[in-house]
Design goal:
This protein has 24 helices and 32 strands. The longest helix is centred in the first third of the chain and has 28 residues, at 132-159. Strands 7-8-14-13-10-15 form a six-stranded antiparallel β-barrel. Strands 2-1-5-6 form a four-stranded parallel β-sheet, sandwiched between helices. A four-stranded antiparallel β-sheet has the order 21-22-23-24, covered by helices on one side. By secondary structure, it is of the alpha+beta class. 33% of the residues lie in helices and 22% in strands. Strand 8 (206-214) and strand 9 (217-218) form a beta hairpin. Among the domains are: 2-130, Rossmann fold (3-Layer(aba) Sandwich); 191-255 and 393-468, Topoisomerase I, domain 3; 262-390, Topoisomerase I, domain 4; 592-652, no CATH class; 778-870, no CATH class.
């Protein structure tokens, strides 16, 4: 009997069925150990020794594996077929060796790209040893991410209050979003005009042709800069005679795109289905691990973390057979198509993402999948089969037309396309982001009527339209992933987690599927660009990725790469100790001038305080983050909050003058919109007794009108009496967001809209769900929902559920969890980050730790486990790693 270790219990159950009674398949549940979330887990002064820690849950799983090995012949490590999977196998083996559970038993590593019986049995027939260079690349990446997170993040906390973390890939991705915002702010729109003529052939058919040349010159987009030039050319076309000069019909072939990689799947799912990168990977994981198809669990797609674009030969053969069967022989090219990637630093170690069986069409599995699974599988199946189909054949016709008005000549052009054979378009067409043109014929020009050279054309109408150049579009998730891949930043398995981290840290907000940098994200980027320039450069990050790839290939020593990185990085960290607040503020004022000092409508100097008229405005750093204030403080107490949208909101409230919205119909008091120290708010009346309400998160100043202000000021809102207690249930907006209140007990509502719309039945249900989570412990302290381990400074860290929702507790520090965060999913590093941020808001004074008690081992685990750069650890770390007890050799 052999013991087989896979990552997930879902795979373990399926693979055990494939292998039979001679095997026992157990799950590791991802990584079995990780670097403790505290300073000193990676020791540069001891040749980058790494201190690993196994948490309680993993200790039980390791014990189960060790017990199973006692009567087994050997161990087969069958974790995922990528660097992360290789690392998990290495960790499992290393821990088992230290427990002396291996002995003289054989140990083999197998990999399969799909969870099907054939793929698993083939892998078992071709075992190998653990790929040491691949493990070395993992160790280098893990150490780099740890060193950056634990040394750079504390610099941010000290020098830039309100900043939450920095990371090797995370910060560079954020810079891309912020750089695009800078481009948009600097963009100067230019006027241009387009002219076209609606013409009629001798046969009476109409078509449109656009002006492409005049005054003996070829026209570019901005060649007609104003109305005067446009009117002059329009006059020419109004009085001109038209004759066809040439007609050229040219056949064009369009080829299909390759099968999906991780990044192209995320892009297509975003464009076509509206899925986030994280959602796409969650669904793909389930399709890969297996779906119950008529009593048999089978993986429907191959492994979904890959940058390879080629399919296995047997998969290509299966696709070609399915094309003939489902589309006909006309759609099958003579030879199979082969692809190679254009992405920088692509490894192409695995197959592209494809169906495990092309005969399993979406229609055949429809009844076994939920709606989201079906949509994604349909996308993967169609892209996979289209990649091996015949080219689309298109006839593109170009008509050149001469216009002549008393010797003044101009040229017009009309273009039309006709699909003569749809080819691969019958299965799949691309949909590109941000207005890019597709390569798949779905944006073809319209058809043209029959036109012959020398035909004389009649003019029906001349159109002249004004346009303005537009700034580059903000990134969407899809286009940002595409850009990161082009630059060689990060790896396929990191993209989704990186984007989620930027959102969770509130460095980036999503508006109509576009990524908008929040002011705190722009502050972090400006700080890093000013004082850690090298480490947020695109080329530097891509070159480091290339070095990691060379480690994987056995071409570089992983510790040499770490030594080279750490020497310069540590020196840069040390230099920041000499930074004064004035140095930081001066740099940020210049780097973020459009955000900090937005232009004023009256043309006055945006750096001069409009309240006192003599003070200079500048960024100020407070315990709640950065804001704009006057240099004449305290004589002038003008302040302004930074906004996440390029200063537009700040400009609207720059004078700090109240904006009248109307009167309260019941009291007759004036309702005004104001800007205060902590942001915009509405107020009814004047004086200390005036009723006030802050604007909820997501509500924009420019959208606040009399009706919305009245709604806010009417809170709390009585919903109705509880059917059991008879006491009133009310809804309101508090410090921690929207809530329900009944008999002194609170329950969170999901959105501010719920405060105004929730009915009695729903309110009773929400309160009951909150009550079902269990009573608080004695003394009013809520019972712990989850124990995470010990804080680096001593004292237990727990997750609890309180009056205003779930929170992390350490000593006297209570840090609220982000909205929508599952309390059971909180990791140690996330808890440390929240505690550090809460402590900074409380004035930076560390809480006194409780007396030390035996603590459970803390461990940070995530779905992708190894991509630590997307979730930099936060703790009270010092730049230089301190000496630590002798570590177990990694």
């Amino acid at each position: 009997m052999n013991v087989v270790v896979v990552e997930s219990p879902a795979k373990a159950k399926t693979i055990n069925k494939y292998l039979g009674s001679g095997y026992k398949v157990l799950a590791s549940f991802g990584h079995v150990r990780d670097l403790p979330a505290k300073d000193g887990s990676v020791l540069p002064d001891e040749d980058f020794q790494m201190l690993w820690e196994v948490d309680n849950a993993s200790q039980k799983r390791i014990k189960d594996i060790a017990d199973a090995l006692k009567g087994a012949d050997g161990l087969i490590l069958a974790t995922d077929p990528d660097r992360e999977g290789e690392a998990i196998s290495w960790h499992v083996l290393d821990v088992l060796k230290k427990k002396r559970a291996i002995g003289d038993k054989t140990v083999k590593r197998v990999v399969f790209n799909a969870i099907t019986k054939k793929a698993v049995l083939d892998a078992m027939a071709h075992p190998r040893d653990i790929d040491e260079p691949l493990v070395d690349a993992y160790l280098a990446r893990r150490a780099l991410d740890y060193l950056v997170g634990f040394n750079l993040s504390p610099v941010l906390w000290r020098k830039l209050p309100g900043a939450r973390s920095a990371g090797r890939v995370q910060s560079v991705a954020l810079r891309l979003v912020c750089d695009r915002e800078n481009e948009i702010e600097r963009f100067v729109s230019e006027e241009y005009w387009n002219l076209s003529a609606l013409l009629k052939t001798p046969r009476g058919d109409e078509f449109e042709a656009r002006l492409v040349s005049a005054d003996g010159k070829r026209l570019q987009r901005n060649s007609i800069p104003n109305a005067d030039t446009a009117n002059r050319l329009k006059t020419l076309l109004e009085g001109a005679t038209y004759v066809v000069d040439t007609v050229e019909a040219k056949p064009v072939k369009r080829n299909p795109s390759p099968p999906f990689t991780t990044s192209t799947l995320q892009q297509a799912a975003s464009s076509k289905l509206g899925y986030s990168a994280s959602r796409t990977m969650q669904i793909a994981q389930k399709l890969y691990e297996g779906i119950d198809i008529g009593g048999e669990t089978v993986g429907l797609i191959t492994y979904m973390r890959t940058d390879g674009v080629q399919m296995a030969p047997e998969a290509i053969d299966a696709a070609r057979a399915a094309i003939t069967d489902q589309f006909g022989p006309r759609y099958l090219p003579e030879k199979a198509r082969l692809y190679s990637t254009k992405a920088k630093n692509a490894q192409e170690a695995h197959e592209a993402i494809r169906p495990t069986d092309f005969n399993r069409s979406p229609d055949k599995v429809r009844r076994f999948l939920d709606a989201d699974q079906l949509k994604l599988y349909d996308l993967i199946w169609k892209r996979g089969i289209a990649s091996q189909m015949a080219s689309a054949e298109i006839e593109r016709t170009t008509v050149e037309i001469l216009a002549d008005r008393n010797g003044d000549k101009a040229g017009l052009r009309a273009v039309g396309s006709v699909i003569r054979f749809d080819g691969f378009i019958a299965a799949y067409t691309d949909q590109k982001e941000d207005g890019e043109q597709s390569d798949d014929g779905d944006d073809e020009d319209g058809r043209l009527p029959p036109i012959d050279p020398r035909d004389k054309l009649a003019k029906s109408k001349v159109n002249s339209t004004q346009h303005f150049t537009e700034p580059p579009p903000r990134y969407s998730e899809a286009s940002l992933i595409k850009k990161m891949e082009e630059l060689g930043i990060g790896r396929p398995s990191t993209y989704a987690a990186t984007l989620k981290t930027l959102s969770d840290r509130e460095y980036v907000v999503t508006d109509k599927r576009k990524l908008v940098p929040h002011s705190k994200g722009r502050l972090v980027t400006a700080f890093l660009e000013s004082f850690f320039t090298k480490y947020v450069e695109y080329d530097f990050t891509a070159d480091l990725e290339e070095k990691l790839d060379k480690i994987s290939a056995g071409e570089l020593n992983w510790k040499d790469v770490l030594r080279d990185f750490w020497k310069n990085f540590f020196a840069q960290i040390e230099e920041t100790k000499e930074l004064r607040v004035t140095n930081v503020l001066d740099a940020l004022n210049e780097a973020l001038a459009p955000l900090v000092f937005p232009k004023r409508e009256d043309g006055s100097d945006p750096r001069i305080c409009q309240v006192c008229g003599t003070g200079n405005l500048s960024l100020k750093l407070g315990k709640y983050g950065a804001f704009v204030g006057c240099s004449n403080y305290p004589e002038c107490n003008y302040t302004r909050q930074l906004t996440s949208e390029g200063g537009a909101e700040a400009e609207a409230s720059a004078t700090n003058e109240p904006k009248a919205l109307g009167k309260d119909p019941h009291t007759g008091e004036e309702i005004t919109l104001r800007s205060g120290r902590f942001g915009p708010y509405v107020q009814r009346g004047d004086g200390k007794e005036a009723k006030r309400s802050s604007l909820p998160k997501g509500w924009r100043v420019e959208d606040i009108d009399h009706e919305k202000a009245l709604a806010l000021l009417s809170l709390p809102r009585d919903i109705g009496q509880h059917p059991e207690s008879g006491k009133m249930i009310s809804s309101g907006l508090g410090r921690y967001g929207p809530f329900l209140l009944h008999d002194g007990k609170y329950a969170n509502l999901e959105t501010i809209e719920d405060v105004f719309t929730v009915g009695l039945n729903r309110a009773v249900t929400v309160l009951a769900e909150k009550a079902s989570k269990g009573p608080s412990s004695r003394g009013g302290t809520p019972a712990a929902l989850k124990e995470l381990g010990e804080h680096p400074s001593g004292g237990a860290i727990t997750v609890r559920d309180g009056r205003y929702g779930p929170y992390v507790n350490w000593a006297k520090v209570n840090a609220t969890l982000p909205k929508g965060k599952d309390p059971q999913s909180v990791t140690m590093e996330e808890a440390l980050a929240l505690i550090a941020e809460r402590s900074a808001k409380d004035g930076g004074k560390p809480a006194k730790a409780a007396k030390k008690a035996p603590a459970k081992a803390a461990k940070a685990k995530s779905a992708d486990a190894a991509e630590g750069e997307t979730k930099p650890k936060k703790a009270a770390a010092k730049p230089k790693a301190k000496a630590a007890p002798k570590a177990k050799k990694s």
